Each structure stands twice: as C-alpha cells, then as structure tokens.
Amino acid sequence: MKVLVVGANGQIGKHLVTFIQVGDGLEARAMIRNQEQASFFEELGAETAVVDLEHDTETIAKAAEGVDAIVFTAGSGPHTGKDKTIMIDLDGAVKTIEAAKLAGVKRFVMISSFDTRREAIQAAPASFAPYVAAKHYADEWLRSSDLDYTIIHPGALTNEKGTGKVQAASEVERGEIPREDVASVITACLKNQSTVGKEFQIVTGTIPIKDAMKLI
C-alpha cells in the first residue's frame, strides 16, 4: 500500500514516514511544502511531492496519483493567525478530501483535534476556538464523503518517546500522548480495515496499539 502523507514535514508526519519506510507492507510518498525539506525523506527511501496546501485541488490530486491511501497530518501550527488556520486546517483539509476523490483514492485517515464537537467550539478559549471550528467542519466534510475514512482525535501532544500503548475509544478522559505513538496508531489503522468508518480519541494508556485498534 502506497500512502501519501500530507504534512509530512511536521513532527507526526516525520515519525509516520519513518515507520512506514522501516516497516512491512506500506510505502510512503511525503507531501512537503518546499524542496529543501526533501532530504530527510529521500534518505529514508520515500518518494516526495512538493505541493503547498494553498495550491488548488487539482495540484494536490496530482500528488495523490497512484497512491492507495492519504493521511492528513497537516496543521497551521500554534504561531499562525486565524487566516492560516482557515487556509490549512479547514480549506487545505477539504481540498485534500476532494483531491482524493479526483485521484480515485478511497482510504483517508484524518488527524483531527481531541474534541471537535459543536460544544467544544463553544467551550474553547477565544484564541483556540477558530482551530476547533476548522477541525469540526473538516471532519464533517470527511464524514459526508464516500471515502473509507478514519478520524483520529489525539490528546495533548508531547515529544516524549512513544510507549506503544494507548487508551482508545469514542470518548476517553483527556490526557497526553506522544506524537510518536500517534504515528504508530496511524500505521496500525492503515493496516486494519476494521478502522474504516470509525473515529476515536486516543491518549496514553495500557493497551498495545495494535490490540487497541482491533477494539475500536
């Protein structure tokens, strides 16, 4: 299975491409914003596609030609304004979903925010609410598509070394999770068809990731 990783140069994206390239059964194509980011992925033996998420849908679709799955791990980051949140976390996600349709790619894994329900938007601090709203509507767009989707809602992200164990369910108590473990969860989802049409929250827990994905 060849996987287009959108947002590959992010922290989760780099872990994910690494896991894909060193594991069995998967192959990565890293979608990056500029050529200067390519060397990390080329050293892993991964293909690269230089595409900005603010480009049009057709350009993103071209990057997805010939792949079997798309993982959306991109995000505008905490230091950008509301404009970039709209352009990347909402419009970029929607264009990627539409690009998947154009390219004939059915499998789509979305990395979302921990809670994107309407109530979470209303409860979020003013500075964070636009991000939650963007994720809310991107998730809604994916749910309403005909794609074989999985939506992953990770807890507070850390740079700690992964534990390989999580708690995963439609709703879990808030907690933290290493980015490395989020990447492992994505890899497990790509290899497990039972996660199609599912969405779940994940935090660090006690269940090995492969087993946790079988229980979703």
What does this structure look like?
By secondary structure, the protein is α/β, with parallel strands linked by helices. The chain has one domain (2-214): Rossmann fold, CATH 3.40.50.720. The protein has helices at 11-22, 38-43, 57-63, 82-103, 118-123, 129-143, 179-190, 209-214; strands at 2-6, 27-32, 47-50, 69-72, 107-111, 148-154, 156-158, 165-169, 176-178, 198-204, 207-208. The strands form two sheets. The chain has a nine-stranded mixed β-sheet, sandwiched between helices. Strands 7-9 form a two-stranded parallel sheet. Strand 2, helix 2 and strand 3 form a beta-alpha-beta unit. Helix 3 packs across helix 4. The longest helix is centred in the middle third of the chain and has 22 residues, at 82-103. The chain is globular. The protein starts with a strand and ends with a helix. Residues 7-192 form the NAD(P)-binding domain. This is SDR family oxidoreductase. It comes from Aquibacillus rhizosphaerae.
